[in-house]
Write a structure and sequence with these properties.
The structure holds 2 protein chains of 2 kinds. Chain A is mainly alpha-helical. Chain A is built from 13 helices and no strands. In chain A, helix 7 packs across helix 8. The two termini of chain A are 30 Å apart. By secondary structure, chain B is mainly alpha-helical. Chain B has a single domain, classed as Orthogonal Bundle (MetI-like fold). Helices cover 79% and strands 0% of the residues of chain B. Chain B is built from 13 helices and no strands. In chain B, helix 5 packs parallel to helix 11 and helix 10 runs antiparallel to helix 13. Classes of the chains: A mainly alpha, B mainly alpha. The interface between A and B is large, with 89 and 94 residues.
């Protein structure tokens, strides 16, 4: 689905040409530019910026932020969300790289179908993802593997919805990777593992981290897929988004806004880190 | 050789248990008793209504994001202004926000007790717990998709043709309609499909702002959850399979439309 999210460089990324390059002749300021910019900013403000600012304002006003975030249920939910998402990002970094590797370097019948399937979690509505996992890993599990209402169930749901990120960031890098270096390492007597660790891994690392970061931000925000399989048990399987939802339903808007603010802060910190990783990767690529 | 096979088995096994078996199982359970009960479940008045609400919300959201997406992409690629990077980052912002937070954010501004929402309601427009709020929520979560699909193609296309048209006396609108739009049409179609899929499948943000009023603001995804919680598994599975089929169709469409790199 949103392969474009993972694959194409986001529009906020630095442009390909370094800023130091001589700028093209400055055009006279254009009336259309100002008008279009005004419209775009107004639209963004009405739909995105003002509402998000209202959340942060409501959540941090009057010093209620820490009290709301440190209530036992919200704190437990935030801990599960951040810890679980870290685990999910780590599993994704390993398994996503393995899958990307197999898709690029291996050859087997049906590979094209597998390649298309990778994007299915992005296309599938999250509530359907949750229902689908509950069918296989729920109380009536044909595998006799009941993960319903457990933290493991939450992790599986998060793994499902974040599957494409690392695969889709690592895959293009692996495709572009120059194989001469590997062959040189081989001919100098390096084994498969040594070649991977010293030659391939350093080249893949920026993409792996970047995909893992995207998976993390997606995982901490996730709501729909965890609703059914987690059972939303406070202190055990309730993730932050579910905690916020419960507070909204109980009309505890201020504390809902405080927990939301905490979630937004974590997401922004990770996104800023991702931007650094991307620049690091771009520098290494030169 | 051994590494190669074990990696293949590991990757395919992971995908099998995480992806293929669960999705396959739900399809199998849905159609286990044939097509008739599925059709009955999907043609019940509440299911049909939920489908209509979903379609209406999704089409408004796609129209809004398509117009904004074309405009913002042209602005970002063809125009120079200070703060361009910030605008790009702001357009990307919705992807990092939890759907539930999106819903809360809209309630805080457009809810009945908020200044803006109160003013709108006094003028006859109820936003939260009704369709406008659901459209806003859907627009929010799918905001960057069309922009991001168009920007790279527009960059690649370059300005020469547009400038040539301009030199030959074409007006801005003529250039846009005859040169720019045909140049980006596949990317635009790709973005619209992505946006539509996201809009049809949105759950969290819509769950918050719709108030989940059965028979009024219930979308198809909300219908799935509500039927499942009320132990009506056949209806939940049937609607989930319908949504999954739509997802597969969009998936194939995006593969077909994806700009070849």
């Amino acid at each position: 689905m949103a392969t474009i999210e993972a694959r194409a460089a986001p529009i906020s990324a630095p442009p390909a040409a370094p800023a130091r390059a001589p700028r093209p002749r400055r055009r006279p300021p254009h009336l259309g530019t100002g008008l279009g910019l005004g419209l775009a900013v107004t639209y963004l403000s009405l739909i995105v910026l003002l509402p998000l600012a209202a959340v942060v304002w409501r959540g941090t006003r009057g010093g209620d932020f820490w009290r709301a975030v440190s209530t036992p249920d919200s704190w437990a939910a935030l801990k599960l969300t951040v810890g679980g998402s870290l685990l999910v990002a780590a599993i994704n970094i390993v398994m996503g790289t393995v899958i990307a590797w197999v898709l690029v370097r291996d050859r087997f019948p049906g590979k094209a179908v597998v390649d298309v399937l990778i994007d299915l979690p992005f296309a599938l509505p999250t509530i359907v993802a949750g229902l689908v996992l509950l069918a296989l890993y729920g109380t009536a599990s044909p595998l006799h593997l009941n993960l319903a209402y457990t933290q493991a169930g939450v992790i599986v749901a998060l793994l499902f919805v974040t599957l494409p990120f690392v695969v889709r960031t690592v895959q293009p890098v692996l495709l572009e990777l120059d194989r001469d270096m590997e062959e040189a390492a081989h001919s100098l007597g390096a084994g498969g593992w040594l070649t991977f660790r010293r030659i391939i891994l350093p080249n893949l690392l920026p993409a792996m981290l970047s995909g893992g970061g995207l998976a993390f931000t997606r995982a901490i925000a996730e709501y729909g897929s965890t609703v059914l399989i987690s059972g939303n048990i406070k202190f055990r399987t309730e993730v932050a988004a579910v905690n916020i939802f419960g507070r909204i339903e109980n009309d505890e808007i201020t504390s809902a806004a405080a927990v939301s603010t905490a979630l937004l802060v974590v997401a922004f910190v990770v996104l800023a880190g991702l931007d650094l990783v991307r620049r690091w990767g771009a520098r290494r690529g030169d | 050789m051994v590494t190669r096979y074990s990696l293949r088995v590991l990757a395919l096994g992971y995908l099998l248990f995480l992806l293929v078996l669960p999705v396959g199982l739900i399809a199998w359970r849905t159609f286990a008793r044939g097509l008739a009960p599925v059709l009955t479940a999907l043609t019940s008045p509440s299911a049909v209504h939920a489908f209509e609400v979903t379609l209406s919300v999704a089409s408004w959201a796609v129209v809004a994001n398509t117009i904004f997406g074309i405009g913002a992409a042209i602005l970002l690629v063809r125009h120079r202004f200070p703060g361009k990077r910030i605008l790009g980052a702001l357009i990307d912002l919705p992807l990092a926000v939890s759907p539930v937070v999106v819903g809360l954010a809209l309630i805080l501004v457009y809810g009945r007790f908020a200044p803006a929402g109160g003013w709108l309601e006094r003028h006859g427009l109820q936003v939260i717990f009704s369709l406008p709020g659901m459209v806003l929520a859907t627009v929010f979560v799918s905001l960057p998709l069309v922009v991001r699909a168009i920007v790279p193609v527009l960059e690649e296309l370059g300005e020469e043709q547009e400038q040539a048209a301009h030199t030959l006396g074409a007006t801005g609108w003529q250039t846009f309609r005859r040169i720019t739009i045909p140049g980006i049409r596949w990317a635009l179609a790709y973005g619209v499909v992505l946006c539509l899929a996201r809009a049809l499948g949105e759950y969290g943000a819509v769950a918050v702002v719709s108030g989940r009023l059965v028979g009024q603001t219930q979308t198809l995804t909300l219908f799935v959850e509500e039927r499942f919680q009320n132990f009506d598994q056949p209806a939940a599975f049937a609607a989930a399979t319908a949504l999954a089929l739509m997802a597969v169709v969009t998936l194939l469409l995006t593969k077909f439309l994806r700009p070849k790199d």
